Amino acid sequence: MAMILYHGEPNGPSLAVLAALGESGLDVECRRIDLLAGERHTLAGVTEPLARDMGVEGEGPVLVAGGEAMTESVFIAQFLDESGSNTLQPKDAYAHWQMLMWCRRITERCAPAAAFLGCKASAQPVLAGMDDGAFAALSATIASEDLRTRWGAVRAGTFPDEQVADSVTKVTDAAKMVEDQLADGRDWLMGDLTIADFETYGWLAGMVDLVPDAFAGKDRVSGWLARVAARPSVQSALALASVPNPQSSWAPGPEINRWG
Amino acid sequence: MGEVTLYHWEPNANSGKPMLALMEKGVKFDSHYIDMLNFDQHKPEYLAINPQGTIPAMTHRAGSLGSRVLVESTAIMEYVNAEFDGPDLMPGTAQDHWRIRWWMKFMDQWLAPSFSMFGWKFFVGPNALAAHGQDKIEAQIAQIPLPERQLAWRKAVFGLFSEAEMAESGRRISVGIRMLEDELTKREWLASDQYSLADVNGFNLAYAMPLSQPHLANDEVTPNIMRWLRAIYRRPATRECWKLGRTPMASRVAILEQDYIPPRDESEGITSGVR
């Protein structure tokens, strides 16, 4: 089955999936799209758009397989791994549960925070610079009302202080979680290299510049970031960038939990 | 004590997911009922098992591998499916697996919190107050260590949601029900051609929908949702699962026991349908 992976600049969930693809050994066509131009919402050849339209992740990568738009970076990574070399997920069911739980802490707590801070730093000026007509046309292509609202908030520069502080706390918590996890001297988060390494790296790598205090004095985190960055799969993904520093490319991400 | 112990509340929502998955797999387990509205989950004996104080939790004594403690309902279900013999609840191709996971995440993170807000406001909260009284509940909430958890519990039990929050939850329920109906028009089960964890998850989220949202989910507007709920409701595993309930919440849903229910007055609402 012909598959096409549509991805943004290699950062965040796009980077996680590109790295997993590289590890899988699969030959899948990759097409870079401009997420902040809304290109994700007007892809050709999508006959089943539901997951693209209503995915929780926001502007993550889209793998189109048999016309079906597949989203959510962890699950795309699992799909690629299961379809390919099958090396990125623990075989033992309990170790697999631990990996899933790790990924959920990242996608549910760290990812909304990182996307919020990243958008504040780099996406806001881009969207604010669009004229009203162009932004209205872009908004009209976004099916999900709550995702559309998040785009509008980024453009308007709506970044309340308490959400900034909460996001810094969540990024800091994630960095500490990595530091603690590596305390026994292991190289990778789950022992062996897994999807958890790429998912975590995707969301955290761009936070080193934005929330430096979260990483200060955390030598194990620094070493791990360098190890992940050195993987050939990550290097190949980064080579797909069209900008000098893809780690500062962000687009609206998952929402911050409504129940607090 | 057997190999597997499940700490759960009523057989619905998050507790119902691993309960039904275990029943479908045919895994024998010790059922340990946690009365959530009596705040059993914050008592020391439970915190010794799950320090997070969340329900459900499962322990599995896996021979020489020692005793494992698992939390988070959907992740527990995936463990149950992978670890034990029995029917495969993650069936089909790798793309089917992806679809099952996608729907579970969508329901867990986007749709269920909205249902939950309505459920607490109109059903669980008032029931809790009637059963335990305001003073006792206030005192128990005050015992919860984390201030933000106290706030969330107060909001839930006393229905302190803003109009905007309720309106957004209402919008999501309406959109989500339409999505479920559209998907169930494409195939027999929610995410694959065979019964899967997505159906187990979805049933526990949605079985009360025809009672709580009769204008949005009924035989005229959502015939495929009704077909799907009835099919799961009739499964022997579901019947066994519901025997573990202790409140009227999961007793008999008359509307799912008949093939077709003609249009009815909305005002009958949830209380008349659950007995």
In short:
With 260 residues, chain A is of the alpha+beta class.
Give me the secondary-structure topology.
The complex is a heterodimer of chains A (260) and B (275).
Chain A: E1 3-7, H1 12-24, E2 29-32, H2 50-54, E3 62-65, E4 68-70, H3 73-83, H4 93-128, H5 132-140, H6 145-156, H7 161-181, H8 195-204, H9 207-210, H10 219-230, H11 232-238
Helix pairs in contact in A: 1-3, 1-8, 1-11, 4-6, 4-7, 4-8
Chain B: E1 4-8, H1 13-25, E2 30-33, H2 44-47, E3 57-61, E4 67-71, H3 73-83, H4 94-132, H5 134-142, H6 147-158, H7 163-186, H8 197-206, H9 209-212, H10 223-233, H11 236-242, H12 254-257, H13 269-273
Parallel strand pairs in B: 1-2
Antiparallel strand pairs in B: 1-3, 3-4
Could you list some keywords that capture this structure?
heterodimer, A: about 260 residues, alpha+beta, Glutaredoxin, Glutathione S-transferase Yfyf (Class Pi), Chain A, domain 2, 2 domains, 11 helices, 4 strands, B: about 280 residues, four-stranded mixed sheet, 13 helices, about 55% helix, disordered C terminus
Shape, per Cα inertia axes of chain A: globular
Total beta-strand segments of chain A = 4
Q: Cα-atom Rg of chain B, whole angstroms?
A: 19 Å
**Average pLDDT, all residues of chain B:** 89
In the CATH hierarchy, what is the class of the largest domain in chain A?
Answer: Mainly Alpha
Quote the average pLDDT of chain A: 97
Structural features, described:
The complex is a heterodimer of chains A (260) and B (275). Chain A is built from 11 helices and 4 strands; from the N terminus they run βαβαββααααααααα. The longest helix of chain A has 36 residues, at 93-128. Chain A has helices at residues 12-24, 50-54, 73-83, 93-128, 132-140, 145-156, 161-181, 195-204, 207-210, 219-230, 232-238; strands at 3-7, 29-32, 62-65, 68-70. Chain B is built from 13 helices and 4 strands. In chain B, a hairpin with a 5-residue loop joins strand 3 (57-61) and strand 4 (67-71). Chains A and B meet through helix 2, helix 3 and helix 4 of A and strand 4, helix 3, helix 4, helix 6 and helix 7 of B.
